[in-house]
Amino acid sequence: MRAVVYSESGSSDVLRVVERPLPEPAAGEVRVRLARAGVNPTDWKARSGVSAALAYAEVTPGQDGAGLVDAVGDGVDGLAVGDRVWLMLAQRGRAYGTAAEYVVVPADRATKLPEGASFDLGASLGVPALTAHRALTSGAGNDRLGPGTMTGQIVVVHGGAGAVGNAAIQLAVWSGATVIATVSSPEKGALASAAGAHRVVNYRDTDATAAIGEIAPDGVDLIVEVAPAVNAGLDREVIRERGTIAVYANNGGDELTLPVRATYSKNVRYQFILLYGIGDDLLAAAAEDVTNAVAHGALQVGDERGLPLHHFALDDTAGAHEAVESGTVGKVLIDLD
């Protein structure tokens, strides 16, 4: 098979395309012939050494993907050769991920893709949709997502045109929440509105604190936060008492400073989220809910409601990494079929 690998940390130049033996699934594992692989910020951050030191002599990047099961190890129930699946955390704790023609993963990291859902959508789920799910279920009483589970709640999604933000908007709207999205441009605002956001606030030309306060004078129940250091003051002003601020990234600064009394006087809960460290029970619940959302047409990419798609060949995986690192708006995919 053909695969992308790197053996040292660095820029995208360290990525190279090689031939490697076809991997065989062990007990409890499946092998997937990939049609698409998704590229996320964690991929380039790991490759560059920003987020972690090189853990293996050789690494194939990629946590997300979609394709066909083509081999099944002993003891696997519920998956069979020929099943269409989407993958999550394919490279967590392993050297080889989805930037390859085939990948072997534990069976619980492969989920059947609903009928009619494209491989483009399947490869776009993984990290963004699961992170969004965890953020949305961090609030009081929000154990699962689905129709009616968030009815009556008001959610702010910062970065509504990002991959996680876009998924959070769609999942929250499907679950019955009222969603306010913040964005930095009219073009991004259009994407957030298309995803279903009920109100969009462009923080570059509007006082976001005042705008959100007008929409939700009693405060919002939950904030999906991509830039906690930058937005700390805004978040503290607009969150209601006993509300939750779910933080999944640190765009715009690594230091979060909070005035203690002003923060604890609202009984505010901060929930920090790193997808790679959450429990298997939470991942399983998220995969089930996300798949249900896909089956009901509530989660989309590349159509009139979803983010635009950017396709790259396996030979140009470096270009795919560069696109994500540069902040390209939309979902970056590697085509493998």
Report on the architecture of this protein:
It is globular, with a radius of gyration of 20 Å. The protein has two domains: 154 residues, Medium-chain alcohol dehydrogenases, catalytic domain (Quinone Oxidoreductase, Chain A, domain 1, Alpha-Beta Complex), CATH 3.90.180.10; 147 residues, Rossmann fold (3-Layer(aba) Sandwich). The protein is built from ten helices and 15 strands. It has 337 residues and is an alpha/beta fold. The two termini are 12 Å apart. Helix 3 crosses helix 4 and helix 6 packs parallel to helix 7. Helices cover 28% and strands 25% of the residues. Strands 3, 4, 5, 6, 7, 14 and 15 form a seven-stranded mixed β-sheet that branches.
Question: Which tags fit this structure?
Answer:
337 residues, alpha/beta, Quinone Oxidoreductase, Chain A, domain 1, Rossmann fold, 2 domains, seven-stranded mixed sheet, six-stranded parallel sheet, 10 helices, 15 strands, 25% strand, globular
Helix-strand blueprint:
Blueprint: E1 2-5, E2 16-19, E3 29-39, H1 41-48, E4 64-72, E5 84-87, E6 102-106, E7 110-112, H2 119-124, H3 126-136, E8 154-158, H4 163-174, E9 178-183, H5 186-195, E10 199-202, H6 208-215, E11 220-225, H7 228-238, E12 239-247, H8 260-264, E13 269-272, H9 280-295, E14 309-313, H10 317-325, E15 331-335
Parallel strand pairs: 8-9, 8-11, 9-10, 11-12, 12-13, 14-15
Antiparallel strand pairs: 1-2, 3-4, 3-6, 3-15, 4-5, 5-7
